Each structure stands twice: as C-alpha cells, then as structure tokens.
Amino acid sequence: MEVILRPTAEDAARLVAHVIAHELRANPHLVLGLATGRTMEQVYRELVRLHREEGLDFSLCRTFNLDEFVGLPPDDPRSYRHYMRRHLFAHVNIDPRNTHLPDGMATDWEAECRRYEALIRRAGGIDLQLLGIGRAGHIGFNEPLSALQSRTRVKALTPVTIEQNAPLFGGAEHVPRRAITMGVGTIMEARRCLLLATGAEKAEIIARAVEGPITSMVTASALQLHPRCTVVLDEAAGALLSQKDYYRWLYENEPEWEWYRTHGFA
Ligand code: GLP
Question: For ligand 1, is residue 161 a contact (CB within 6 Å)?
C-alpha cells in the first residue's frame, strides 16, 4: 500500500483523476472499476474536463461500478446508475453499452450477482478499481464482518451507512436496506486499486484501514494485502496517520510519481 497526502480535497481528487487518465491513455481498452459518493464528484469533474479540453478518450473503455441499491430503477435520481450518468457518462464519449452496474431491480438476486461476476471475468478482469471509503470502513458496500474473500452479493446496510446516505434520500427511513455490491474478494482481484478519501470525518477510519490490523470489521483494511494499492488523501483525512513523514518522503522521491511532481502536483 502506498499513501499520498495532498493539501486539499481538490488536489487529492485531481491527482486521482490524472492517475486514471494516465492509465486510460496507456491502455484505451482499460477496464475501469468505478465508485460513487460525494468524494468522487470532483474526480469525475476533472475527468470530464480532461475529455473536453485535452481529448481524453473513453470510446474503448469499459466500466464496472462497485455497487447499486436494491429496489431502485436506473432512472431513479438516487440510483448509482443515475449518479454515473449525471457525473460522468453523459459528458464523455463512453459507449453506454460498455458501462456496467449491478441491476438493483433484479428479482433473482443470486442470478444477478453471478451475471455481474461473469461480466467482469469476460472483460478480462478489472485493470484499475477506484474506491472510496464509507464511515463504517467499507469499500463498495462491504459492511463490517463481510468475508474478506466475498464475491458480488446482496448486503444489508448498517445503521451508520443508512445514516450517511439519509440526506440523499430525504431521511433514513427512505434509504434502501440492501445493496448489491462487488465482494472484497472481487475488488482484491483488480490489478490496481486507487482509494480516495477526503475530509476530517474520514480521518479515524482511514487510520484504522491503513495502519490498523487487517480485519473484516474494516473491510478497507483488506487492501493492505493488495499488491498494488494507492491511497490518496487530503491532509484532513490523513491527519491521524502515524507515518506521515515517511509517506511524504516517498511521494517526493519515488520515480513513479515524478511526472506528477513536475506537472502541478508537487
Ligand atoms: C457509499 C458507496 C461507497 C463510497 C461511500 C463514501 O457507501 N457505496 O462506495 O465509498 O459511499 O461516500 P462519500 O464519498 O459520499 O463519503
């Protein structure tokens, strides 16, 4: 795991967008795993800008989102399908047939989860998986006690997650109780993981996920076992980490990050 600290949320999101853009330019057929949530909005804004102003090409790219609420149709403004259309798909040259999310309206949940896993497999697996982190420490909707080898399945949401999503639904009582989510095991098979977290309210859970023990109570901690995981934080989200000086030194000195240091991300 490598940790990159950026001064502000905007800097952190911009860096993440540029990592995605780099990978997409290097491989136009990139299979990209996508995430939702407020944190990602700035990432998608920058990707849209890169498409409009610098010709970033999504025409051959295929995407798989982490999760979707159970019971929400794709045209419901609170669905993740709608979120993706609003923040990214409608503004770039991606072929809608290449964009995939679990179907929240599926009646046979198990069949839908199997279908989603098979689609990812058929695409050759995920090259780059973008991740946020929930206040409960989840990646996707892998709530506490999710098996660290779990596959795509339906998960019941914890009270903390329901509370976190309440504003979007106009009250906790309207938040769906379940979601279909890629499993921790599914996420761990991505060739590269890129987790973005910003803001002071994520500081405690980030410290547990990055520097704490690997535990299914904080499913993001499983990423410590991933061979290529980059965690990008703003100063506020990284505030409780104990090895900040070491992380800063790595970013300032590792050749991998030289392009970024010399292109406005110093
Ligand atoms: C939801 C999503 C997660 C996301 C999290 C954080 O729970 N299923 O994938 O990481 O929200 O959201 P935010 O960025 O709004 O804090």
Answer: yes
Query: 38 C-alpha vs ligand 1 centroid, how far in Å?
Result: 7
> Is the Cβ–Cβ distance between 220 and 196 less than 8 Å?
no
> How far, CA to CA in Å, does 7 sit from each of 185, 198, 209, 232?
32, 10, 20, 11
Residue 35 Cβ < 6 Å to ligand 1:
yes
Instruction: Write the DSSP assignment of 174-186 as a string of letters.
Output: GS-SEEEE--HHH
Please give the single-letter amino acid code of residue 45.
Answer: R
181 CA closest ligand 1 atom index: 8
Residue corresponding to tokens 């795509």: 152
* Ranges of residues in the chain whose predicted pLDDT is under 50: none
Position 55 scores a pLDDT of 98
Which domains, from first to last, does the chain contain? 2-261 (3.40.50.1360)
Question: Does 140 sit in the ligand 1 pocket, CB within 6 Å?
Answer: yes
